[in-house]
Amino acid sequence: MGTHPMAFSGVIGQAGRVAGPEDSPVRSADLRIGGRPLALVSPARVYVCGITPYDVTHVGHAATFVWADAAASVIRMSGVDVHTCRNVTDVDDVLTRAADASGRHYDEFALSQEFLFEQDMRLLGVRRPAHEPRARHHIPQVVQLLLALLSAGAAYERDGHVFFRGADVPAQSGLDRDRALELSREYGDRPDDPLREDPFDVPVWRPSGDTDPAWPSPWGWGRPGWHAECAAMALCAFGSSVDLLAGGADLAFPHHAYQSGMVEAATSVRPFSRARLNVGAVLKDGAKMAKSTGNLTLVSELLREHPPAAVRLLLLDRRWKQPWEFRTKDLGPAAARLERLYTAAGRPTSSATATDAVSAALLDDLDVPQAVDIAESEGGAAARHLIGVLSLG
Question: Which CATH code is given to the segment(s) 41-305?
Answer without folding.
Answer: 3.40.50.620
